[in-house]
Each structure stands twice: as C-alpha cells, then as structure tokens.
Amino acid sequence: MVNTERDPFLVVLSGPGGVGKGTLAKELVERDEELILSQSWTTRPRRNDENPEAYKFVSHEEFLQHRENNGFIEWNEFLGEFYGTPVPDDSISQDILLEIDVAGGRQILEKHSETVLIFLDAPDVSEQRRRLVERGDDAIQIEQRIEEGDRERKDAESLGYFKVVNNDLNQAVEQIQEIIADKRSS
Ligand code: 5GP
Fold it and tell me: Beta-strand (E) ranges in 80-136?
C-alpha cells in the first residue's frame, strides 16, 4: 500500500564507482512500492551497454540552462562532467531514492535534515577495481574513481552516513530496507 499518512523523505545512496549502486537501487525500488528512484541528469556520455534510462543524458548547454532555472535540488561536477538531481514533483507521495555522490548528499542534508544517508562500499579495493575493469572504464578513470572513493569514504563518515558493504546483493538490500523501515517507524 502506498503511503498516504506520513511525510515522505529522501534516501541518498552514495558509494565509489563500481560498487554496484545501480543494481542495488533498482532492487530496492522493485521490492518497495513506497520508494521511487530519481533520475539524475548528466553530461557524461552513456557507457556501452548502459541502460538508456540510467540517466537523462544531456548536453552541457541543457544542463547549465536547467541549473540556471533552479531545476536541480543539488548538483555536482565529477571528473569533469555535471550530475544533478532534478527538483521532485510536488505530487509524489512516496520516499525518493537518490543515487548521488557524497558532495550531493551533503547538499541534500543541508536542505532536508530528515534525509537517510547510506554509503555502499565495495568489500575491498581489488574487488572495486575488478568491477570497474569489467564494466569497461579506462585505466586512468579507474584510478581516479578509486581515489575519489577514498575521499568520499572519509566525508561520508563525518556526515554520519550509514555504511553498508556490498558483499552479497541480497544482504545489502535487506540491510538498507531495515534502515528505511526504522526511519519510517520513527
Ligand atoms: P557515474 O559516472 O559512475 O554514473 O557516476 C559518477 C558519480 O556521480 C557517482 O558517485 C554517482 O553516484 C554520482 N551521481 C550520479 N548522479 C548524481 C547526481 O544527480 N548528483 C550528484 N551529486 N552525484 C551524482
């Protein structure tokens, strides 16, 4: 049953590249009808085999125009490309899942203190590197994403993110479902 009684909140899912955030986010919204996924905008080109719905892929001009019109609740530049969360529709009654970086999580928390912040981490760096190679990132990007991941891990800790390790998809989904359920019942 879809929520009609409580105020919806935002759930931010962050974590280093190659940790499996996309798959996990999809599972979470499939299993929970009170949770919907926000579609971010990005200027980054679509990767081979990437789902066309993973982002709204736009030009730099389109992104900057939308930003100018206050169309984003947060945005960030990551490895030279823009990423942003469009302002959610007022009519939405479900909780909204944002798959964004920690800098974006910080902006969201400043505006919406009720936000649930979750940092999904890889079991270890070698596993993260293996996943990045598998999805076809080039060598320089892999090292940049790993370094960025280290920075984000520290920032997430200081912002009070819940940390979940993605050893097993099902277990990670269940842990996050528990965190969300606790928030709903608080
Ligand atoms: P990727 O290029 O791997 O899809 O994403 C790079 C980083 O940007 C990831 O950490 C991802 O979570 C983050 N990201 C994706 N969408 C958004 C967004 O709308 N806002 C912010 N701040 N970060 C985003």
Answer: 81-86, 95-99, 116-121
Domains defined for the chain, CATH in brackets:
10-185 (3.40.50.300)
Q: Cα separation of 72 and 23, whole Å?
A: 24
Residues 6+ apart with CB under 8 A from 96: 8, 10, 11, 35, 36, 37, 38, 88
Ligand 1 neighbourhood includes 12 CB (under 6 angstroms) = no
Collapsing DSSP to helix, strand or coil, 59 comes out as coil
Residue 4: the pLDDT is 58
How far is Cα 158 from Cα 153, in angstroms, rounded to an integer?
Answer: 9
Question: What are the pLDDT digits (tens) for 23-44?
Answer: 999 999 999 999 999 999 999 9
| Secondary structure class of 11 (helix, strand, coil) | strand
CA 14, CA 149: separation in Å to the nearest integer?
10
Indicate which atom in ligand 1 lies nearest the CA of residue 21: 12
Q: What is the pLDDT of residues 85-120, one digit of tens each?
A: 999 998 999 999 999 999 999 999 999 999 999 999
Q: Which residue's alpha carbon is at the smallest distance from atom 15 of ligand 1? A: 100
Please tell me if the CB atom of residue 82 comes closer than 6 angstroms to any atom of ligand 1.
Answer: no
For residue 169, is pLDDT > 80? yes
Backbone dihedral angles phi then psi of residue 172, each to the nearest 5 degrees? -65, -40
Strand partners, 154: none
